[in-house]
Structures are given as C-alpha cells and as structure tokens.
Design goal:
Layout lengths: L18 E5 L5 E7 L4 E6 L9 E7 L4 E7 L2 E2 L2 E7 L4 E6 L3 E2 L2 E7 L4 E6 L6 E2 L2 E7 L4 E8 L1 E2 L1 E8 L4 E8 L6 E7 L1
Parallel strand pairs: 1-3, 2-4, 3-5, 4-7, 5-8, 6-9, 7-10, 8-11, 9-12, 10-13, 11-14, 12-15, 13-16, 14-17, 16-18
Amino acid sequence: MRYLLLFLSFSAFAADNTINIQQIGNNNIITVAQDGSGHIATVNIGASSNVDNTAISIDQKDSGIKTANVEIKSGINNGVNILQQGAGNHIASIQNLNGSGNNINIDQNGSGNHEFRVLNSIGSVNSGNTITSTQSSASSQVFNLTLDGTTGATVGVSQTGAIPNTGSMTIQCAPGTCGTYTYTRN
C-alpha cells in the first residue's frame, strides 16, 4: 500500500493582531507569536473544568500596544510564559488564578511602558504556584500582584532601568504557609 504525504505551509499578514483561545482538556501546548502592530492575545483555560499540564507561550515583539491576557480559572501544573519586547506599551495580565503547581513567567523588556497584573479572586485556592517577573527598560514599570488563599507560593519580581518603578503585592495566607516573596528594584 502506498501513502502520499502532503505538507502545506501558509503565511498570513494583517495590519493588526488579535487571538482568542478558550481551551478545554489537559496536556495542551498553546504557542502565540505576534510581531508588530496591535498585538492582543487572550487565552482562557479551566472555564468549565480543570485544565491541567498545559503549556502556554505568548511572544509579542516590537511596536504598538502589546496585551497578553491569560485566565486560569481551575487547574494544576500549568506553565505560562509571556515575553513582551521592544517599542510600545506592554501589558500582561494573569486573571482568576486558581489552582496549584502553576508556573508563571513574565518578561517585559525594551522600550515602552511595562505593566503586569497577577490577580485571583476571593475564595481562590492557590498552592505551590510560582510567579517570576522581570521588567527592564528606560521607561516606567508597574506591577500589581494579589493572591488570596495562597499556600507555599514562590514569587520573584525584578524591575531594572526605569524610574519611576511602582508595584504592589497583596498576599492573603495563614501564618507559616505563605511561601517566599521577593522584590528587587535596580
């Protein structure tokens, strides 16, 4: 029996970028790469049931307004990597973080303003989540991190280069269960 293999490659170009993904099921790999123009990427996981062991990578580069929104309503062992580089306003947002063993990495560098938010709602359960963020540029940098009901989290935020730098961390946890939190500003 003979088999015919056919590979097709497509390229698409647009003036603006927008991507919306609602993912159900476990063990997924989501990769978004956006170069130039309006950049908006929104990924929603765990809306109807747990989404576990999912890797999300959002890479937004150069010019325009970059906005990356990831919502993790329910799930364990998910990885989120957001890289935003170059000119333009950088905004990264992790919303409704609810679950355990999730690893979030946000890297914002180059020109423009940088802002990230990691927020969960009251009554959320967060156990052993890791959040790492680096902001580096010559213009202002802002972050807002709010975790409620957290146990054993590891959080590291670093801001370098720009003045003014501002940020806030609000952590709600039982004594002795909070984890490790660091903020470095150079």
